UniProtKB/TrEMBL annotation:
<dbReference type="InterPro" id="IPR024078">
    <property type="entry name" value="LmbE-like_dom_sf"/>
</dbReference>
<protein>
    <submittedName>
        <fullName>GlcNAc-PI de-N-acetylase</fullName>
    </submittedName>
</protein>
<dbReference type="GO" id="GO:0016137">
    <property type="term" value="P:glycoside metabolic process"/>
</dbReference>
<keyword id="KW-0862">Zinc</keyword>
<dbReference type="InterPro" id="IPR003737">
    <property type="entry name" value="GlcNAc_PI_deacetylase-related"/>
</dbReference>
<dbReference type="GO" id="GO:0016811">
    <property type="term" value="F:hydrolase activity, acting on carbon-nitrogen (but not peptide) bonds, in linear amides"/>
</dbReference>
<dbReference type="Pfam" id="PF02585">
    <property type="entry name" value="PIG-L"/>
</dbReference>
């Protein structure tokens, strides 16, 4: 059995790109760990703790994740302005990347990780914290000598098709389909494809655990509300497969993506 560590930027990110993989890995007897760079808060942590971290632990319980860890940073936000750090901790984008990588590497060594899940070079859709996760994840994998680094992504053409598919559901994804063609990863770069439709119900329930995001304001909250309310078969159709780029593989592309579990067995 293997230990799979998933490194993410914010609470709720663990579900959307890797939730099915984590649920399947746990169900098959592998140890799974989620590490987030930020606690999802833009301001100070309240006396009772970060609400989104509590929701993350509930999401992790649903997915069968054995451990949750936080590197100690605040959310950097997504947009033109990078706000000043809150008084109690730095934003992830202002943190020393080498220090962040060493903190993550210490967890990877402690867990004797076989696989690290991180993000592709675009950080998916380009969020600054996601791009930094890609950079820090790569360095931490080197420091800890993790045998396999798989970077979560979507084939760009799939992202475009999904955007068009959800138009009748009135999900305000915030990107024009043509914009998405330049995000995520080209299909020829994909090395691993995971069928997680069997775990779609668990993935949807884990997403619902992030209540402050689901019932918050703004476009992202509207998207999440729609996703947790659609029938499970529809959710499985939309988010029932997960894709990765193997950053430890030879540069020659594979014509047929293999399953991540071919790598961890």
């Amino acid at each position: 059995m293997a230990t799979v560590v998933a490194f993410h930027a914010h609470p709720d990110d663990e579900v959307l790109l890797t939730g099915g993989t984590l649920a399947r890995a746990a169900a098959e007897g592998h140890r799974t760990v989620v590490v987030v760079a930020t606690d999802g808060l833009m301001g100070e942590v309240p006396d009772g703790g970060a609400p989104r971290m509590k929701e993350l632990r509930e999401s992790a319980r649903v997915l069968g994740v054995a451990r949750v860890a936080h590197l100690g940073y605040a959310d950097s936000g997504h947009g033109a302005v990078l706000y000043p750090d809150p008084p109690d901790r730095p934003r992830f984008m202002r943190a020393d990347p080498a220090e962040a990588a060493e903190t993550l590497a210490a967890i990877l060594r402690e867990e004797d990780a076989d696989v690290l899940l991180s993000y592709d070079g675009n950080g998916g859709y380009g969020h600054r914290d996601h791009v930094r996760v890609h950079e820090v994840g790569r360095r931490a994998a080197e420091l800890a000598r993790v045998p396999r680094l798989l970077e979560a992504t979507l084939p760009s053409d799939v992202a475009v098709r999904l955007a068009r598919l959800v138009r009748p559901l009135r999900i305000p994804i915030g990107f024009d389909p043509d914009e998405l063609s330049g995000m995520f990863s080209p299909r020829e770069a994909i090395t691993h494809r995971v069928d997680v439709r069997r775990y779609a119900g668990r993935k949807q329930a884990a997403l619902a655990a992030h209540r402050s995001e689901v019932y918050g304001k703004g476009r992202a909250a509207a998207v999440m509300r729609t996703l947790v309310r659609v029938p499970a078969p529809v959710f499985g159709l939309l988010l029932g497969r997960e894709w990765y780029v193997d950053a430890t593989a030879p540069s020659a592309p594979r014509t047929v993506p293999c399953d991540i579990f071919d790598a961890v067995r």
